[in-house]
Amino acid sequence: DISTKMNSKEEYGYDKERFTGLTGEAFDCIICCLVVKNPQECTSCGSMFCKSCIDSWLLKRKECPNRCAVTQNSIKPIGKALSKIYNDLDIKCKYYDDCKKTCKVSDLEAHELVCNLPKCVNFEYCGNNVKDPKGGKFCDQNCVLLDKVRAANGDMAKIYKELKDFMKSYAPSIGGGGGSIGGGSLSTGVTWKWDATLIGTGIEVSPDKSKVFLREGPYMFRTCIGDTGFTGGVHYWEIHADDKTENELKIGVATKRDFNMNSAFCDYEFGFAYYGLGQLRHGSNASGSQYGKRFKKEGILGCFLDMNRGILSFGLNGEYFGIAYTNEALKKGPIYPAVSLLHCAGCKVVTGLKAPDYFFK
């Protein structure tokens, strides 16, 4: 049994050689002899196991490997203090030979999910991976345009035509349609959806990827990210409340996507959010300044990102809340729309809209 588990490293523990600075056997699984993955412990003897290892073990036995009798609560996830130490360990990505990235254990799953995707042909400029390899070699329409501009080889007539065609497709106001120009800035009308491959545990995504909903016992924020990174310009989208929501959402943008989705994106310095309690959250999971009004299960929240000025603003049901953030980081793409859900919460996103005029004042 043990030799079989040791050969199934993808499913069970981590090779110790992937860790930097980890010595000793404190986090070794006594079944597969690798560094634990999803660590559990026996409350009687204190031994540690991978969840997959101990689950397989207990299918055939009624005691832990040290012969402790197993009861309903005798095998549990490791405690909070030990979990904090474990999650903070530095581990190399399993694609390290290519990506050369080391991250925290808590961020590993989200990083490897993105890292395994092929790089956009313009990766050196956008830093993005291709989310749907079957759909082509570009991460989004911005890179499609960039590729066409480069192919024009400086022919300004061709470049002008490509820009004009692009603006007609993604900013209808340029061609006389429904986009918005205000204060010298363009509301691009770019459409996007939630990325079903980058979501926290338990989040359900609708078939059209416009709706997300979380319903679970634990009170932990889970995050979902938009499938398109904004690289410049002005962007507007709306979050429509779900009347089944019981807990306020955190809504905004993140300048990264390779982080632990089983946390709120705004817990980190790269996250900027409006919290439905009528507060802001940026680089903190506990405090933020008062802003706007409460938003939970009713209404429409407008989200406005102006990358020209590095500004993020919000408005509820047509009432402008004012500028929430002015930050240099909001000028540099890619920037991804994000929402974090707690316990029982959900929403629908509507994109490709004209931004209300008050956002341009």
Could you explain how this protein is built, in words?
This protein has 361 residues and is an alpha+beta fold. Helices cover 18% and strands 27% of the residues. The protein is built from eight helices and 20 strands. It is globular and about 75 Å long. The protein starts with a helix and ends in an 11-residue tail after the last strand.
Features:
single chain, 361 residues, alpha+beta, seven-stranded antiparallel β-sheet, six-stranded antiparallel β-sheet, 8 helices
- Give average pLDDT, whole number: 86
Straight-line N-to-C gap:
67 Å
Q: Which geometry do the CA atoms define?
A: globular
Largest sheet: 7 strands, antiparallel
Quaternary form: single chain
Structural class: alpha+beta
Percent helix, as a range, is 10-25%
Strand order of the largest sheet: 9-10-20-12-16-17-18
Secondary-structure element sequence?
A: HEEHEHEHEHHHHEEEEEEEEEEEEEEE
Strand content: 25-35%
- So how many helices? 8
Q: pLDDT under 50 segments (min length 5)?
A: 1-9, 171-186
